[in-house]
Amino acid sequence: MTPPTVILSPSILDANFARLGEAVQAAEAGGADCLHLDVMDGHFVPNISFGLPIVRDIRAITKLPLDVHLMIEAPERYIEAFAKAGANRLTVHIETGYHHNRTLHAIRDLGVSPGIALNPATPVVAVEETLADVDRVLVMTVNPGFGGQKFIEASLDKVRRLRAILLERRLGAQIQVDGGIEPKRTAPQVVRAGATNLVVGSAVFKAAAGPQAALAALREAVQTARLASV
Ligand code: DX5
Ligand code: ZN
Predict the structure, then answer these.
(1) What is the pLDDT of residues 182-223, one digit of tens each?
(2) What is the 146 CA–ligand 1 centroid distance (Å)?
(3) Where would a tag sit more exposed on the chain, N or C end, judged by fewer CB atoms within 10 A?
(4) Do residues 179 and 11 touch, judged by C-beta distance below 8 A?
(5) Atom of ligand 1 nearest to the CA of 145
């Protein structure tokens, strides 16, 4: 069986916010599959990033799919607004909100692709009942809130267990990982464990060689790992 293609989702969280247009162009030129936009409210996570106006303005300058990661409390209050702002994919956390089935279906009904995210200390079993309703499961590989943190090694086993459940149930949700992903070590490791969608922030936008070269190195690294895992 051919292993699934790996999606590269650069996160602009670590880009220079005064020059976001350039960051978006660099991600496009580097062959990004989508843009990952991290929305933080200062409650669910101890950081505030950006919200609707940035999503709307980025929508106006790119055709890349916008993959919006909502690190906010009660995300159901905002899903329609983010859909209208141009989000193509919306991911909410299992740790926030009470009615995930309703929220995930509401996202789908808006014509947007739903995803569920889980924090490092949240067990895989917590998202099991949502798996049939999502296109992506986002396994946080750092504690959410900041770019540039160290990859949590226990995430690898979590990805493996999630992959086994999805295979057993014949479900096609992507396994997205987010946090501490870089081309040398963690990207190949997560791909071998079963991740099919890699969010990469600082290793793209803070790369010494620049975002385009960083994306090329990531593409190369995941291709090699993907073929080795056949
Ligand atoms: C962290 C965010 C990430 C962040 C990843 O809470 O969800 O998307 O940008 O940054 P790196 O790749 O630097 O760990
Ligand atoms: Zn994210």
Answers:
(1) 999 999 999 999 999 999 999 999 999 999 999 999 999 999
(2) 6
(3) N
(4) no
(5) 6
- Compute how many other C-beta atoms are within 10 angstroms of the C-beta atom of residue 59: 18
What CA–CA distance (Å, rounded) separates 157 from 181? 16
* Sign of the CA dihedral with 201 first, then 6, 141, and 131 last: positive
Q: Which of 33, 67, 135, 178 is catalytic?
A: 178
State the distance between the two ends of the chain, measured CA to CA, in whole angstroms. 7
What 8-state DSSP symbol labels residue 142? S
What tokens were used for 150? 């160290």
Q: What is the pLDDT of residues 78-127, one digit of tens each?
A: 999 999 999 999 999 999 999 999 999 999 999 999 999 999 999 999 99
Ligand nearest to the CA of 68: 2
Residue 1 CA to ligand 1 center (angstroms) comes to 31
Is the predicted pLDDT of residue 179 greater than 70, yes or no? yes
CA 109 to chain centre: 21
Q: What is the pTM of this model?
A: 0.97
> What is d(CA 200, CA 183) in angstroms, rounded to the nearest whole number?
9
